[in-house]
Design a protein that fits this description.
Helix content: under 10%
Largest sheet: 6 strands, mixed
Oligomer: single chain
Radius of gyration: 22 Å
CATH architecture of the largest domain: Sandwich
Number of helices: 1
Distance between the termini: 69 Å
Strand content: 35-45%
Shape: globular
Number of strands: 19
Order of helices and strands: HEEEEEEEEEEEEEEEEEEE
Length: about 300
């Protein structure tokens, strides 16, 4: 009798384990098969004691011509006041409200705007009112033409990245792109340099670049924290089909490690890419840019 009970318990155990494996299989099968479609954010506590989700240090280039997110970016902007507003509408008709969004790098929403020539780039954080579906922002473009806009958020419910894109017309000028390999730049008397860039870059290959920012005396610039890091980088392809939002390698793991400005770079297709390094001095953002050619 005792042996029969043991045998029965063993069968039940095997059955339960089998059910668990079947459940895990279907959960994994249901996940998005795109690297960028699934959560690549870590749960951390920022300097204000708020729980947020910070992106990993992977380059994570997002090609929106191939990866469609179920969200629409609705925008309006006034050229006189420079004031704009936006809303995020899901495919089911629901508008994303601020209280439904998680903090990612100290902000609930990141708005990226870049012109046709890839010369004028802005990284904005729209203002929010908790119960309002409309987010407001101030946008002062340096040129004219059609700006591409990308809104990046992470809903609390899914903890998965959502990217919505749209266009903002600023005048009728047609902007022309001009690329040549560039790993140094000077902006606002700051000398930006990207080290570790090989002469030939290949697709789908991990590269680790080091960013240096020097002041006019040639000493390391005294950079302030911006989005809980000493620098951020964004890479756009020439067709503005997508972007990579990159974060310092070490700071994702240790937010107190603020001096190592290394970034991973990995893109899926050949062509020209313009990288913008964003730093902050005296409360103001300064952007240095670099041009890299990737071959197939």
């Amino acid at each position: 009798m005792e042996q029969s009970i043991k045998l029965s318990n063993k069968k039940i155990g095997v059955f339960v384990i089998t059910l668990i494996f079947i459940g895990v299989y279907f959960v994994i099968k249901a996940l998005p098969d795109s690297e960028c479609g699934f959560l690549h954010y870590e749960k951390v506590v920022n300097e204000n004691g708020e729980i947020e989700y910070c992106a990993t240090n992977s380059a994570g280039f997002i090609d929106l011509s191939k990866l469609q997110y179920p969200v629409q970016l609705i925008m309006d902007w006034d050229s006189d006041s420079k004031q704009g507003q936006l809303s995020l509408k899901l495919d089911g008709g629901h508008f994303l409200l601020p209280h439904e969004l998680a903090y990612t790098h100290t902000k609930k929403i990141h708005l990226l705007l870049v012109d046709e020539s890839l010369e004028d780039y802005h990284h904005l954080h729209p203002d929010i009112t908790e119960l309002d579906q409309t987010y407001t922002f101030n946008f002062n473009p340096k040129t004219k033409g059609v700006y591409k806009a990308y809104a990046e958020v992470v809903p609390k419910r899914t903890r998965r990245q959502l990217i919505a894109s749209s266009e903002l017309k600023v005048g009728d000028d047609l902007r022309v792109q001009n690329f040549s390999r560039k790993t140094q730049d000077i902006q606002n008397a700051l000398h930006f340099e990207l080290l570790g860039v090989p002469e030939v870059l290949e697709v789908n290959k991990d590269y680790r670049f080091k960013l240096t920012v020097l002041d006019p005396s040639g000493m390391p610039a005294q950079l302030e924290r911006i989005m809980d890091a000493k620098a951020h980088m964004v890479a756009f392809d020439s067709g503005r089909l997508g972007f990579a939002h990159m974060h310092p390698v070490e700071e994702v793991v240790d937010l107190d490690s603020l001096e190592n400005l290394d970034f991973y770079f990995n893109v899926p297709k050949a062509g020209w890419y313009r990288l913008f390094a964003q730093v902050q001095i005296n409360g103001a953002s300064v952007y240095g840019s670099f041009d890299l050619l990737v071959k197939g």
